[in-house]
Amino acid sequence: HRNQTLKDVNVLITAGPTMEPIDPVRYISNHSSGKMGFALAKAALLCGANVTLVAGPVHLEPPAGCTYHSVKTTKEMHEIVLQLFDQQQIVIKAAAVADYRPAEMATQKIKKNQPDLTIQMVKNPDILLELGKKKTHQILVGFAAETENVASYAADKMKRKRLDLMVANDVSREGAGFQHDTNEVILMKPSGEMKEISLASKEIIAQEIISEIVTILNRKKEP
Ligand code: C5P
């Protein structure tokens, strides 16, 4: 599938979970494997793009030819993504970012000497929401993993975050979402256009998403 449809185009992709420390040995995270984001990076590389991949802690090999940044927390991801944003044409936020973090990280391991433990959490920055406010020329792509009312939640998110493309998936379905090698998604555009991609490997889904982005990019270039 090698082509040059994204030659000289800078594409920034985020992938994986983030990890929010509670104390030196514990953290809060989620089940994201990073597979979807890494598959997107590969698909963009096959189209000749300059790919920067920013990933949380994952057990995957970065695809050859991309610029790779490994981060732990949402704050770290936020910082690097904002730093790189201006020079990008396309930004795909496939990471499952932790929405909250412990208000403070205990400097020493928390001991089990009390009957209950309460951890105060504070909200993390919503990176994609900020990018939506900041964007000038960039094509912004977001993900929505939902367990109910997928289409309506996703459409609302697309509007609120000013996205050019929303990839929505129902993570309660068999073979879709976290950890799996397959996925099943709905692509949504601000025009109301929708396209369902039925159960397929994350590689195939990634190629479909990238080719949809190429269409959006080419349409943007038209006078
Ligand atoms: O609103 P929700 O978190 O479900 O939106 C999901 C989309 O927003 C994903 O594309 C995700 O990468 C992005 N996001 C983000 N920063 C956050 C939370 C989500 O960029 N703190």
UniProtKB/TrEMBL annotation:
Domain of life assignment: Bacteria
Q: What is its EC number?
A: 4.1.1.36, 6.3.2.5
List keywords of the entry alphabetically.
Answer: Decarboxylase, Flavoprotein, FMN, Ligase, Lyase, Magnesium, Metal-binding, Multifunctional enzyme
Record-annotated DNA/pantothenate metabolism flavoprotein C-terminal domain positions:
6-215
Name of this protein: Coenzyme A biosynthesis bifunctional protein CoaBC
Q: Please state the gene responsible for encoding this protein.
A: coaBC
- UniProt pathway: Cofactor biosynthesis; coenzyme A biosynthesis; CoA from (R)-pantothenate: step 3/5; Cofactor biosynthesis; coenzyme A biosynthesis; CoA from (R)-pantothenate: step 2/5
Q: How is the cofactor bound?
A: Binds 1 FMN per subunit.
* Reactions this protein catalyses: (R)-4'-phosphopantothenate + L-cysteine + CTP = N-[(R)-4-phosphopantothenoyl]-L-cysteine + CMP + diphosphate + H(+); N-[(R)-4-phosphopantothenoyl]-L-cysteine + H(+) = (R)-4'-phosphopantetheine + CO2
The coenzyme or cofactor needed here is: FMN; Mg(2+)
Q: What does this protein do?
A: Catalyzes two sequential steps in the biosynthesis of coenzyme A. In the first step cysteine is conjugated to 4'-phosphopantothenate to form 4-phosphopantothenoylcysteine. In the second step the latter compound is decarboxylated to form 4'-phosphopantotheine.
Region feature (Phosphopantothenate--cysteine ligase): 11-223
Family, per entry: In the C-terminal section; belongs to the PPC synthetase family.
The residues that hold CTP are: D99, K109, P125, D126, I127, L128, F143, K157, K161
